[in-house]
Amino acid sequence: MNKIIGAFIICIAIAVFGRAISLDDAKKKNPEINELLKKSSGEIKSWVEFLLEYMPTMDLVSLNADSMLAELSALDSVLDLIPWAKDVPEDYFYYYVLPYRVGQEPLEYFRKNHWKELWERVSNCETMECATYRLNEWCYEEMKYEPTSRWDQTAEQTLVRGIGRCEEMAILFIKACRTMGIPIRDAYSPYWPFTNSNHAWVEVWTGDAWHFVGGAEMTALDNAWFNKASRRTAIIKGIAWSELDTADVPIYYAKNGFTILNLTPLYSDTTGLSITVLDENSAPVESADVWISVFNYSSLRTVAHHYTDKNGNAHFVLGKAELFVSAGNDSIWDFDILPLIDGNSHFDMQLILEQKSIPDTSFWLKVVKEVHAEKDTSYKPPDISYCRHKLKQERLTAINENVLECLPDSLNETRFIKCINRARGNRDNLLAFWLAHQKEKENIISLWEAMADKDILIPDSSQWEQIWEQTMQIRERFVKFFGNEIDDSIFWKYTANPRILWEDFDNWYPDIWKKTKKYYGSELNEMVNSVSEYVQQLDTLTDKSYFGGMMNPIQVVKAGTGRNIERLGVFVAMMRTMGIPTRISWDYDAAEFFDIEMKDWKRFELRPEKEDEKKRNTGIVRAIFRDIQPKTEMEYYKDFTINKIEKGAFEDLTPPKEIVDSFVIFKDIPEGDYAFMTGWRNAYGSPFVRIKPFTVSQETTEVEITVGLPPVEMVSPGDLIAHKFDGIPQTDIRDTKGKKLKEKDWNSGTVVIAIFDTEHESSISTAKVLANVPEIPMIIFVVDENADGAKQFCKNNGLAGRIFYGDKAKIKESIKFKQIPSIMLLKDGKAIMWTEGLNLDVDKLIQQLL
């Protein structure tokens, strides 16, 4: 068998890696690295050297030699078995097969645990394409799509939990394919321009070309639900381990141990945008920040960034949408809008840096209305995969939600069952621990309720014993400081909780307490000063690597360095071990600890050495949102954001808010210039963006913001209706009670008609949003052959209405939709809104039209 030879490493030009610590330093901090190099030999040693060269700091200080060696030995065994090993180009192997991690998920050794199981699934395959289908079927059987918290879980945790968001679906599938020697890479759109949210998927190389597919989604290659969406986005990026010199697509970035590929040309026509940045004297500005942004979650969010060269130039390859283009240098900036141009095209733009303020303005950012995509129906998912998928999901749910709803929330037993349901595949460990501590069950429930869903599925029963023992130690210290003077929920959420922010989960208490216990017993201010001194001395060199997420306190202490947010995490951990409630502040620029004398949270900030302490002056903002009448039911991100300009781009804040009369009150906002941003999307997803600037001083600032539909003169007739609606003919499709749809059901009054499938993220996410629309009759069509499946889909996503089910082709005969999901708002039988595809603003659009 012709394996991948190790000589490839010799050909790699090693650049200076933007890593917090060098490999030589890492060897001193983690002896496992030298052990790994010592134990590895031959081809595997070449692999080890390649991986170490680009490995992020958090992995260097955490890796275990035996586990990593077993990980690579598993791959070595697979290469002896698979018939396509000889067909994989050498560079593709190193970039897209060998790497053990995908992105920001915690370090794990997936291959060593799963290669035998996965080999059984592909052992009859002669080609990579065949193996790709079998592996994606396995992933589908093991999990389903469900939105989760923002930090990534490992593939192993996804298997235990049985659910994950799109990035976690991709992580599982990528690791499965790499385990079987198939080149595969992560692909993603940072933010969609036509709706909120984003998406991640995979590209797999099957010997002829790269093909896209959704992880754990059983579809033909190049035929996923996002086929059309990917052709309407601003940019699509892919990730490769190490620094590529050449690629089959434009290289967006190649430094610091990783490469970002611009995959957009593989999906759609592109616009080459050349930007020249000048100062107020028309001289070129070198090293200016240039940004491409789209409207998403009520802000202009950056999707691409370059620095200008010595001639003031920067160049982007972008997809098809109107895009917000801005540039900045120090405190001055400028912006313009890239128009939507058909076909492969080029556009020149000039930005002049001369303004400091944020303008009071509004504008459309038009998106592509429709794209054509061929449907491939050649692949038929096996029925057994659907059965295995359903059985696993049933097995992971301890108590049916219908039963749980009947139990009183106040009972400890009800609270316990909810925690067991959250633990999914880890519930046996929780149950064993629970049964061993019956006298402490109420406190145990309080701890579990304070912990994140992703965290309670990690510890086994013995680890729970350790966590509980240290929790009781922290409890004693907490009571000594605070007695019964503060709400007990503060203890569980901000003292006992092992989760600080988005860091890799670990039981950091034992290691951190060793550092902290010498400070314990002093007055609060003395302890704060001691912990501050320790944290301040940690180095501020940080990784510039794409790989790896936020380091946990153990990793930061071991590395001796970290980003500000990671060093603040160490402060939080040290304070919590001493029984002091501590958390990261809302702006992520500081930590906050609870001061018993103030009976409030007190701010702690990291400052560069020798910098004079500056007073943080803040103000209060009283905002009134008007959609003709004042509106107070305004959700941050969904309906509005508060933004400032940083280096020429909008950056949103998340300040705490409260409602007083008709005003939304924001406190603790530092002095400076800001803007409220709101938006409204038409039926195609094009946003109408409103920017309302204001200045915060130490006095109260009042701002009035207009929301809702754009001015009449700025709305076109086609903005609300994607297709012509000619009514619904008589059909044999029946609802879940066996009744047919009649004309009178939709031809009078106000009615929502919605069409969904049960599997894809676009339907699930849109359904959850549509469920927010109150008190409007809904006729819901679900592509499902089974009435129970249709009802369960609606229940899972909070939808209520008359539910029809049936074959997709039959539903399409009645309602001439082009894409699922498809949502219509009818008034007396006439469509006043019809939108198709992923739409996370559909509830707001319907409510505003009514």
Number of helices: 27
Helix content: 25-40%
**Spatial separation of the terminal alpha carbons:** 68 Å
Strand content: 15-25%
What does the overall shape look like?
globular
In which order are the strands of the major sheet placed? 5-4-3-6-8-7
The rounded Rg comes to: 28 Å
Could you name the ranges where pLDDT drops below 50 across 5 or more consecutive residues?
1-16
Largest sheet: 6 strands, antiparallel
Provide mean pLDDT, rounded.
Answer: 92
Structural class by SSE content: alpha+beta
Number of strands: 33
Descriptive notes:
With 850 residues, the protein is α+β, with helices and mostly antiparallel strands. Among the domains are: 6-185 and 199-209, no CATH class; 497-611, C8orf32 fold (Roll), CATH 3.10.620.30; 618-714, Carboxypeptidase-like, regulatory domain (Immunoglobulin-like, Sandwich), CATH 2.60.40.1120; 720-849, Glutaredoxin (3-Layer(aba) Sandwich), CATH 3.40.30. 32% of the residues lie in helices and 24% in strands. Residues 1-16 have low confidence and may be disordered.
Compose a concise summary of this entry.
The chain is 32% helix and 24% strand. It has 850 residues and is an alpha+beta fold.
